[in-house]
Specification:
The chain is α+β, with helices and mostly antiparallel strands and about 100 residues long. The chain has a domain of about 60 residues. Helices cover about 50% and strands about 15% of the residues. A two-stranded parallel ribbon has the order 1-2. Helix 1 packs across helix 3.
Length: about 100
Amino acid sequence: MKRVSLVGTVHEEAGLASISGLLGILERITPEVIFLEIPSGAFDDYSKGSRRNLESTAVSRYHEMRHVDLVPVDLPTQTQSSSRITRIYTGASRARVLSTVG
């Protein structure tokens, strides 16, 4: 039977929250999939190691030891959202112009 485990973390080490602690939890629950709190547009940076914090370091170490699927699930960043909104607005303006002409 499949199991879902939800592990809440903090972004920086503090008190008992540590890279080794999170890595230990991952080793005990042996996930097949880890959902990451990052937008899909940031996944390449994440996988190249340019985004380092408690979670990313622990997950990267776990990923080196075991095959696990990493899935980004966060919303786009403000910059990505602004770009998307600009494209939608531009597209809508063009459609309005075309419907007025036609």
